[in-house]
Amino acid sequence: MKRIGFLTSGGDCQGLNPAMRGVTETLCTALGDKEVELIGFEDGYKGLIYGRYRKMTRADFSGILNMGGTILGTSREPFKMIQVVDPETGFDKVKEMVKTYNKLKLDCLVMLGGNGSHKTANLLSQKGLNVVTLPKTIDNDIWGTDMTFGCHTAVEIATEAIDRTRTTAASHSRTFLVEIMGHKVGWLALEAGIAGGADAILLPEIPYSVKKVASLIKKNTKAGQKYSIICVAEGAITKEEAKMSKKERAAYYASTGTASDRLAKALSELVPNEIRCVVPGHVQRGGNPCAYDRRFASELGAAAGRLILEGKYGFMIALRGSDLVPVPLEEVAGKLKLVPPDCAEVQYAKALGISFAD
Ligand code: F6P
Predict the structure, then answer these.
(1) What is the whole-number distance in angstroms between the Cα of residue 60 and the centre of ligand 1?
(2) What is the pTM for the complete model shown?
(3) Residue where a domain stops, chosen among 258, 285, 312
(4) Which of 32, 83, 142, 321 is the most buried (most CB within 10 A)?
């Protein structure tokens, strides 16, 4: 008998449902349906904290292989807030989570989450809970795994946004700034920018010069290219902004809009071209997972299921090369997988003539 609790935490992405289905199918196939009890916590860690859960069966995870979002709901519970005990009521979220887990006599908590969520998962593991996690996020920024599920689907959507922008840009001879999700990490913008053939890609990891972007647009115009496409990560940062303190930057951003808004304004003073911004936003996280993410999330789920059958806990299942391997949670928690400015993908993009305006 195995009693498993599921929770999906942080920003949603495509592949959460197939991943949970993968765990369930693996356990039920190996042990038989009657030997597996499933609990679904609602809205991420909130469900575990406040005891909001429902009993589920294999049937609840059927027919969701191709479904986006999460059937459990999700929420963001920042790690630094998780550990804060309410001074008035003494309510301790960590204690409550341990209490719920013990009350339900779980054999394992399966957490599907991103960076912040892994810090909490590691904390719970250190508190003695059996935890196995799966790496989800469109940002592909979880340390320890080559890929996260959700990213491939988002790259497809972001690339289509660039493709669709291109035709209207060409018709109107406009310069378009396409803002792609990724506040701290630019994998999504990098991949979609290359796939979409952007003229420039601006990433959080590579501070850019506005003047260099302006020169690129002027050069394109002079060469007879009637339009330009600049792929701007949400967290793209200018060389000047990179010199500001975190506090100064937050204050500056609060009054100047998004990364593409700021760049559009700065460019309007440097080039005569008509400039427009496109922000696909949460559409990048929405809709059904692509075939890669369905398969990948299912296989991650299967690997997690196998680990649980072996009674091994305290791991995230990671993709390393073509293998799925368990990585200890304490190795994953608190680290971000940034785009190294000199990585092969950036070098190939530069070889293709794509500017990073650095
Ligand atoms: O989940 C990752 C992500 O989509 C980032 O790319 C983005 O910066 C952020 O979440 C947006 O968060 P929210 O959905 O809370 O606005």
Answers:
(1) 27
(2) 0.97
(3) 285
(4) 142
